[in-house]
Recover the amino acids of this structure.
């Protein structure tokens, strides 16, 4: 093992005999672009709703439930797709979320939620991960579409305006504190403290 | 036999005219192969203003919309605002003390299972033309009559 490393090091240190430095630099540069682009393209493909619901675990459970909510159909025809709510926009966060998602894909391969029953059993844990994420990033994904600054409270229903004025504006609470279950059915909430529902 | 068939025809005719006059279908009044388009749903009244009860025992009406509110074995969206613990934050009216009573009149720690499904008694209202005229008057009006 050690000898292999030493030989590799030796090759890397010796100047190239056949190719010019310019060629090597440009070549490395181009290869970099290709890999980088390929990586990001692969991420973009995995970042579509079509990809999310290509497995039946998502299609038959969370997607089916999303369909009857305001984020799937509404009067204005603007809708939220899975990645809008579940994948951060910023690159480092995105990669971090993707790495976590690889674990979920692995879960799918070994069938950890491949029936409705198994899914419902795991649902509370899955939901709690999402709540914790929204709580930690101050519901960033919601705010990508719903800006607090652009909310005209006078046009909101009285209940909404009061809740938002009292708790959202002072930053005491964030969207997910009050809007759990906005896109899917809720898991068994008995375990979740009443004040946090 | 003759009388019988005549009366059957008469009944059928009567029933037919009754159907034609009365626009409200208690049963599906179209062929089974036909797809009926239901009338448009009126939006729920969303004023947040308490409405007068028609009689003291009437379950209060819901003065806001409740679209998509989940009330099932797992969760009860109504109680996230109307439960005893939640009203401090929500400033919504608390569910009445009767809702903690089981059928023996014993008070439970939280809402009794028989009161869990709010929409069995509490409903939203819509700004819609009544399908049937209603002659109900409340007790005050009745006493004056």
């Amino acid at each position: 093992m050690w000898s292999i490393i030493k030989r590799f090091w030796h090759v890397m240190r010796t100047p190239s005999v056949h190719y010019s430095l310019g060629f090597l630099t440009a070549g490395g540069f181009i290869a970099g672009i290709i890999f980088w682009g390929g990586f990001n393209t692969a991420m973009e493909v995995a970042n579509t709703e079509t990809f999310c619901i290509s497995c039946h675990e998502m299609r038959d459970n969370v997607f089916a439930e999303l369909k009857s909510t305001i984020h799937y159909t509404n009067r204005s025809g603007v809708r939220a797709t899975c990645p809008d709510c579940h994948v951060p926009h910023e690159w480092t966060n995105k990669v971090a979320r993707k790495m976590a998602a690889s674990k979920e894909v692995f879960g799918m391969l070994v069938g950890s939620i491949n029936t409705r029953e198994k899914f419902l059993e795991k649902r509370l844990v899955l939901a709690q991960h999402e709540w914790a994420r929204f709580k930690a990033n101050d519901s960033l994904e919601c705010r990508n579409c719903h800006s607090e600054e652009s909310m005209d409270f006078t046009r909101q229903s009285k209940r909404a305006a009061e809740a938002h004025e009292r708790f959202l504006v002072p930053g005491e609470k964030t969207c997910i504190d009050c809007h759990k279950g906005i896109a899917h059915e809720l898991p068994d909430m008995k375990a979740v403290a009443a004040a946090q529902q | 036999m003759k009388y019988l068939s005549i009366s059957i025809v008469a009944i059928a005719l009567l029933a037919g005219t009754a159907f034609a006059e009365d626009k409200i279908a208690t049963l599906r009044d179209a062929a089974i192969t036909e797809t009926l388009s239901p009338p448009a749903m009126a939006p729920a009244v969303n004023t947040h203003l308490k409405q007068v009860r028609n009689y003291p025992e009437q379950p209060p009406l819901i003065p806001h919309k409740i679209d998509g509110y989940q009330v099932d074995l797992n969760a009860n969206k109504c109680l996230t605002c109307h439960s005893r613990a939640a009203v401090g934050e929500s400033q919504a009216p608390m569910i009445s003390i009767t809702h903690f009573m089981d059928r023996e009149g014993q008070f439970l720690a939280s809402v009794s299972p028989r009161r869990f499904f709010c929409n069995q008694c509490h409903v939203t209202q819509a700004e819609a033309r009544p399908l049937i005229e209603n002659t109900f008057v409340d007790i005050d009006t009745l006493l004056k009559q």
Remarks:
- The first helix of chain A runs from residue 2 to 13.
- Chain A touches chain B at residues 68-70, 157-159, 162-163, 167, 181, 185-189, 194-195, 197 (CB under 8 Å).
